């Protein structure tokens, strides 16, 4: 079963059959989240309407962490098995994770500006997320030179994940602590629903982005292989043609 799922044929077949259905489901979730996030959820008594940026900021931040965890697992599997799909998964994860992390930093700046008076402070949470962004960029750079070195580098990065998660508890930071925990929520019950819907849509959109990017890479490899095969056959025909002409000229 493992070898069947790891074949490029299975990925190409799955993306052809179900990609449009998943994309439509993601847009449905986003549409379902727009109404409660704008018209149902009440305003915050301190931040006013500006707080509504959390409906995209928080899901993006969660995806940036989740993608890195998945990328680290994929890198470990690549080091153990040397299967090329794990390396492609890690490379694609670095691209998508860097975009989510950059989006998190930008939306966080716009969210913090009215409260902090500036778009950026060297806060523990913000700084650790910025380090995560540089780790993603470093992984992309190492991927261009060596997949093994990139995988080892990625496996070191998870040290930063708990720092991001618990920085608001370990240090005295400007960034507010988590409003949703295992003990409940400190915000109105209507607020977590859009966050959950958009987080789910981001999760599926990320999965589709993975599939499309890996599909593009596989098709580029296949196209390169076919082109080389055509060139090889063309060269062989030329050699046969020249050999036949030389042989006929010598016989005359």
Automatic annotation (TrEMBL):
InterPro entries named among the record's database cross-references: Cyt_c_assembly (IPR002541), Cyt_c_biogenesis_CcmC (IPR003557), Cyt_c_biogenesis_CcsA/CcmC (IPR045062)
| A GO molecular-function annotation | heme binding
The annotated topology with respect to the bilayer is: Multi-pass membrane protein
UniProt keyword list: Cytochrome c-type biogenesis, Membrane, Mitochondrion, Transmembrane, Transmembrane helix
Is Transmembrane helix a UniProt keyword of this protein? yes
Query: What Pfam families does the entry give?
Result: Cytochrom_C_asm
**Gene Ontology annotations for the cellular component aspect, listed alphabetically:** mitochondrial membrane; plasma membrane
GO biological process per UniProt: cytochrome complex assembly
Q: Where in the cell is it found?
A: Membrane; Mitochondrion membrane
Listed transmembrane segments: 21-41, 61-80, 92-112, 124-142, 149-171, 191-212
Does the record carry ATP-binding as a key word? no
Provide the family line: Belongs to the CcmC/CycZ/HelC family.
Outline what the protein does: May be involved in the export of heme to the mitochondrion for the biogenesis of c-type cytochromes.
What name goes with this protein?
A: Putative cytochrome c biosynthesis ccmC-like mitochondrial protein
């Amino acid at each position: 079963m493992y070898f069947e799922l790891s074949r490029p044929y299975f990925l190409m077949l799955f993306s052809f059959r179900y990609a449009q259905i998943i994309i439509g489901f993601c847009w449905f979730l986003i549409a379902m989240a727009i109404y409660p996030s704008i018209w149902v959820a009440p305003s915050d008594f301190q931040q006013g309407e500006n707080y509504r940026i959390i409906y995209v900021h928080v899901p993006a931040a969660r995806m940036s962490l989740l993608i890195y965890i998945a990328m680290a697992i994929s890198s470990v599997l690549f080091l153990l098995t040397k299967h090329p799909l794990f390396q492609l998964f890690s490379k694609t994860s670095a691209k998508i994770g860097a975009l989510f992390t950059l989006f998190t930093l930008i939306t966080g700046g716009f969210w913090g500006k009215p409260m902090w008076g500036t778009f950026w402070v060297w806060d523990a949470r913000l700084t650790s997320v910025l380090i995560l962004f540089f780790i993603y960029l470093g992984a992309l750079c190492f991927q261009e030179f060596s997949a093994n070195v990139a995988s080892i580098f990625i496996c070191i990065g998870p040290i930063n994940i708990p720092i991001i998660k618990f920085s608001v508890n370990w240090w005295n930071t400007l960034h507010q602590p988590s409003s949703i925990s295992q003990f409940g929520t400190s915000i109105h019950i209507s607020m977590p629903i859009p966050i959950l819907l958009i987080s789910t849509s981001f999760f599926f959109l990320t999965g589709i982005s993975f599939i499309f990017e890996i599909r593009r890479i596989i098709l580029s490899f296949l196209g390169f292989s076919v082109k080389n095969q055509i060139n090889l056959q063309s060269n062989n025909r030329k050699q046969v043609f020249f050999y036949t002409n030389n042989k006929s000229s010598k016989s005359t």
